[in-house]
Amino acid sequence: MKLAILSESPADEAAIAVLVEAVIGHKFTRVQSSLRARGWPSVAQVLPSIIRHLHFNTDADGLIVVVDSDDSVVHTAPHEAPEYYHPMCRMCQLRAIFRQTMKKLPPAHGRDRILRGVGVAVPAVEAWYLCGLEDSVTEANWIAGQTAAQPPYTRRQLKGRAYGTERPNLYQETEIAVREARRHARDTRRLEYDFPGFASLASELRAWPKVS
Amino acid sequence: MIASVAFRNFKALRSTGLALSPFNLVIGPNGSGKTSLIQAVLQLHNLARLPLRQSGAETERRPEGAEITFRFSPPYDGLEASLGCVSDTMCDLLQVIPLSTGEGVDDWAGLRARLLTVRNYMFEHTAIAAPSSDRDYAELTLNGGNLATVLSARRIHHPEEFARLAAELFRMMPEYDEIEFVELPGRLIDLKLRLADTAEWVVAENLSQGTLYVLALLTLVFDPAPPAIICIEELDRGVHPRMLREMRDLLYRLSYPKETGSQKPPVQVIVTTHSPYLLDLFRDHPEEVVITEKHGAAARFTRLDQCADLTNVLSSGSLGDLWFSGVIGGVPEEK
Ligand SMILES: [Zn+2]
User: Fold this and answer.
1) Tens of pLDDT, residues A113-164
2) Could you give the angle at which helices A196-206 and A10-24 cross, rounded to 10 degrees?
3) ipTM of this model?
4) In chain B, which residue's Cα lies nearest the Cα of A156?
5) Which residues have C-beta within 8 Å of that of residue A44, sequence separation ≥ 6?
6) Min CA distance, B248 vs chain A (Å)?
7) Buried-most residue among A32, A191, B48, B159 (CB within 10 A)?
8) With an 8 Å Cβ cutoff, is B22 touching chain A?
9) Chain centroid to CA A141: how far?
């Protein structure tokens, strides 16, 4: 299987690759390992071009996109209703971009479309790395904090707690991101339970048709 | 080291002040005071070399003349240094004033010794790539022109620090796996890097601009006796946007040595840039970003964390895009 990953840093990409392998249950080949986005809204802006590029110019089977939610609206169960679309939810937005872009594409490289895997880390991917280590770090707690206008933690605090410093260098960040991803890879259920933004990605990956 | 700087009637800086962090990224249009900030720090360094002027010198100052006042962090927060100026561009009177609170009131000698180490850089890749005199090994010069000599001397006198530097270089640029120095006629030294794939050597003049800047930065970061303050103008010049994260990480090692397990004393870093991509990296640390702005003839400084409604502003885009849009200031005035 050939997959491309789009996220905000090489550290995140390395960790996401580990998590994706754990969910699909086998190794995959990275195509176009140099994709990178500058955070939101840059991801949404460049995504159509990246989808078209992968579809026409590579033999990638799928594209995995993972972004941070930051302070945006979190994707919740009501958003999953047919035809529902929340304009401030990054999950809804990214899925819509995939749908819109792929609708217009003719088949290429023997496939109709690129498979889609979208994950949103609430509020940042460091929360995934802390999942299971700190019980208070969950998507539900973040949403409760948003509702009460009292966020339980900031992005900066999450970084400090995940990496042991608020200013990790890329090497430290990658080491810890991969270490925590490997911890989850042994059993992804806790991460899926505490972070529906990861569970959505996992269920998309599991629903993919088997590709040889 | 420097806790704050206040300017009065210095060039376009009519009346403005700024608290400095261990790391400071200065953004703003040309002519808005980015360089004036660095010049002021350098002038403090230059005047600290000379004996202090007696209070009689006060009379030489014009009452409305320019003045730049520095406060320091502990252990020197009991002293204030004031640069008095004979014109609105030339400051040549240094007065050191004891404050009623704070440490180090009697330790001007200690503060002075730290100020004497201040260094400023504006790297030029052509200068870095040129062979340098084997006598010029003491410290890296303004444009990085003696890089080969400084590094070859460091390999001899500080082999462990040199080994760490080389390891970091090869991690950042895995296309290389060895660094070597060449003695040339005329007592010149050149450097070269070996390509990991083909074992071919690449001499300095054929290295990319970005590689040369990374080498210069590594030379500062792995300095066995780092200075108190380093200023670097236009850090992003010639560097690929994706390399900027590594450049920032290197400079953070200077400002926050403990975070990477180093026992070295922290170095205060003041960096100017015009790169929105470099600015993007400071989203979680707005207190490290200094915005310079010019309105008419007057320029002033603000810190990004003082920006009104910052959380909402940041929710709508990357910091670099927001800067370009004008929302956070630091853009040229348009008539
Ligand atoms: Zn949604």
Assistant:
1) 999 999 999 999 999 999 999 999 999 999 999 999 999 999 999 999 999 9
2) 50
3) 0.89
4) B284
5) A90, A93, A94, A97
6) 9
7) A191
8) no
9) 19
